[in-house]
Amino acid sequence: MSSTGTANDITQETQKLLHAAGLNMVVLLEHVHKFEGIEGPSAGFSGPSFKKTIDDLAEAIDKEVTRFLIACKPPALDTEIRALCPKINAGFFQLVQQCDRIPKLAGKTYLDAVRRAVSKSLVAIVMLFNSFIEHKIEVDKAVLADLAYTASSGIFWEHCKALSQIPADNRAAVSSIWVSTVSGLVKDATEELRDSLDEAESGGDKDGGYSDDDSMNEFDPDIPAERVADGRKIFRLVTTAKHTCDKIGLRCIRDCEPLDDERTVWLDRLVDLGKTVQNAVDELVATLFIEDDEAWRKQLFVETENLSSALSELVTLAITFVDDTHLTWFELCRKQLDAAKHSSSVVR
């Protein structure tokens, strides 16, 4: 094929090399996407040591990709591009090799965080190569859907930064997930419920007037005044959920020591049950806005029971490895949970 330059001034021979390099990345991506950890104990694996290696690799890859982008600027330096492709390939290959060392018992949440960061970086470099070649490299749509990846190749550096932010161990991974998907969302739901109840008790709009934009009403429903009393009882149960999630984040997850295999599995299980509690909180709060009176009473009872059961299961699990100095608080939490549950008996 001719060596004449294309619209982006990169020769066909060099484009073929970039295409081949991109296909190598796709193979690595598919491997990482399916990787579930190696069998065996986690004793020989060090999260902090792994993180340090990944940080160094990410920095090295970043430098080579920066040189690559400079070489691709018109007039393209084909010799430099061809010299850099093997180096970029080698960097990502080493990255995946490091991932292949992670044992299953390092923690499901931790492994998911590593796999997602590495996969996004691999997709980013493929998209980057695609911006310089005519015959584009395809990435499995199922992989892209799982990653929810829609960004362009221009954010490659962001994903290199994500590599440097890989958690040091399962405790750090669980702590991050807990804040973003459990305690943070429960806190938001608690505050929104409180505001809605305050507004219902005050007789409507807090500003004493009405918005000119009636189209927003469907996104900001009101709690009927006759449901406020029951809403306050529900608020107490939701507040208990908030305090419980906050306490678990601080005393069970952050202070988890030592991080042995049993505690690693325990942390993953806390995340699973925490998400169940968070979903139950959302469902319970949503029942207050059901229009049909008979339907909302029935559903309120169901969702109250669901949240109470989920909280009880979460507290029971939390006690398994929590420091003895915090046992008293969790026992008190159990009593508060029973009290809140009994106070909601009006919905029966």
From TrEMBL:
Matches recorded under Pfam families? GCIP_N (PF13324)
Question: Which stretches of sequence are listed as region Disordered?
Answer: 196-223
Q: Name one GO cellular component term.
A: nucleus
Q: Which residues form the Cyclin-D1-binding protein 1-like N-terminal domain?
A: 54-198
UniProt feature, compositional bias: Acidic residues: 210-223
Kindly give the Gene3D superfamilies that the UniProt entry links to this protein.
Answer: I/LWEQ domain, Talin, central domain
Compositional bias of type Basic and acidic residues: which residue ranges? Answer: 196-209
Descriptive protein name: Cyclin-D1-binding protein 1-like N-terminal domain-containing protein
